[in-house]
Design a protein that fits this description.
The chain has a 5-stranded parallel sheet. It has 3 helices and 7 strands. The two termini are 22 Å apart. The chain is of the alpha/beta class.
């Protein structure tokens, strides 16, 4: 929407890796006979980061996607629980969440997402996204 006109224009998008949102804990869960899985869950929400993301998305009309990786122990259920927790406790800046199988899957689709402006991750890992990598403080 530009100048109050209704249009089919899509909003710009940023992808935020789940580690930016707060501190993550890993737990081992017994699933079957002598088999254990590691699962991740959000331990503590970083309220300053979530508030900053919400202000940016609201001010500039940016769509924000929360990304997590299956090979790091995230499941669809855990990601949905995280989104529910954010809805209940703070102003949730995320429009939706997406579970990728691994980091390589996310990196491989970045050039094909025309409205994507960047991937927000922790400062030590932002370089793996190439020119799409953005630190939270630089938004």
């Amino acid at each position: 929407m530009k100048g109050g006109d209704i249009s089919n224009e899509t909003s710009f998008k940023i992808i935020v890796v789940v580690d930016v949102v707060g501190s993550i804990t890993t737990e081992e869960v017994s699933t079957r006979f002598l088999r254990k899985e590691t699962r991740k869950k959000l331990d503590k929400i970083d309220l300053k980061s979530v508030s900053h993301l919400w202000n940016i998305s609201n001010k500039y009309g940016i769509s924000v996607e929360l990304a997590a990786f299956e090979d790091e122990g995230w499941t669809e259920e855990a990601l949905n629980n995280l989104m529910d927790k954010l809805e209940r406790r703070v102003s949730n800046p995320f429009n939706y969440a997406e579970l990728y199988s691994n980091i390589d899957e996310l990196v491989s689709i970045l050039p094909y997402r025309s409205n994507l402006k960047g991937v927000v991750d922790l400062p030590g890992r932002v370089a793996r996204y190439g020119s799409y990598g953005v630190e939270l403080v630089n938004l």
